[in-house]
Design goal:
This protein is α/β, with parallel strands linked by helices. It contains nine helices and ten strands. A six-stranded parallel beta sheet has the order 7-6-5-9-8-10. Strands 1-4-2-3 form a four-stranded mixed beta sheet. The relative contact order is 0.15.
Length: 225
């Protein structure tokens, strides 16, 4: 699994050095920085620009790349004992997902479930979350209806973000709760909304249609904790 970019390179180096398999540099670095990297005790492989771009699949690698051990998603059973889950329904953009996970981790969410999709690139989520996805348990669950039923059976109260819902500031949230967020284009499917215990929204101070899903998720997570 290849990660790239200076921020994620040094986050993994500091917090998860045991995951590193190979180190790649595609730029010259000063002696002090090189010494820090060398202390990881891995062979440092120098790459030319073309090879680095190929490994990063055209992404902005900033000259820093890592090969880390293969990682996989957690199982839903591991999250059922937690208190606050975030469920992303039908989201596929790893940039949005990574930004959401970064905020959710900082705001005390215990785990994130990506539902309603067949597959997603975990390395992209790790990179765009600036490494928070390595700290946050993540589950990939294909069928959202089955997921909601399982969460309810495990004692979760489910809250779906929807423009027709109640202002989150007026809602007293349960201790054991799951927040469902839909994609910006499609939102949460009606059948899932009907299964939810409550629909909530963010009341706008000014007339505007909606917030970006990552901004909305951060606000709701903060208000619900």
């Amino acid at each position: 699994m290849i990660l790239y970019g200076k921020q994620i390179f040094f986050y993994v180096s500091e917090h998860y050095p045991e995951l590193i398999e190979e180190i790649y540099l595609a730029k010259e670095v000063d002696k002090k920085l090189f010494s820090t990297i060398a202390k990881l005790n891995h062979k440092i492989i120098k790459l030319d620009s073309k090879k680095a771009q190929s490994m990063a699949r055209g992404g902005n690698h900033q000259g820093f790349l890592l090969k880390i051990k293969a990682l996989d998603f957690s199982e839903i059973s591991q999250l059922k004992k937690e208190q606050f889950l975030l469920v992303l329904v039908g989201l596929t953009d790893v940039g949005n997902i990574g930004a959401i996970i970064r905020s959710a981790y900082a705001l005390g969410v215990d785990g994130v479930v990506i539902s309603g999709v067949q597959s997603i690139a975990i390395e992209g989520i790790i990179r765009t979350s600036s490494g928070a996805a390595l700290d946050m348990p993540m589950v990939l669950f294909k069928d959202t209806a089955t997921l909601v039923n399982e969460l309810k059976q495990a004692g979760f109260t489910t809250y779906s973000a929807d423009m027709g819902g109640e202002d989150v500031r007026d809602v007293s949230c349960a201790t054991k709760k799951a927040l469902l967020m839909g994609s910006e284009g499609k939102g949460i499917p009606n059948r899932i909304l009907k299964m939810s215990d409550k629909k909530i929204k963010i009341n706008m101070q000014r007339s505007f249609d909606s917030l970006n899903v990552s901004a909305a998720a951060a606000i709701l997570c903060d208000r619900m904790r």
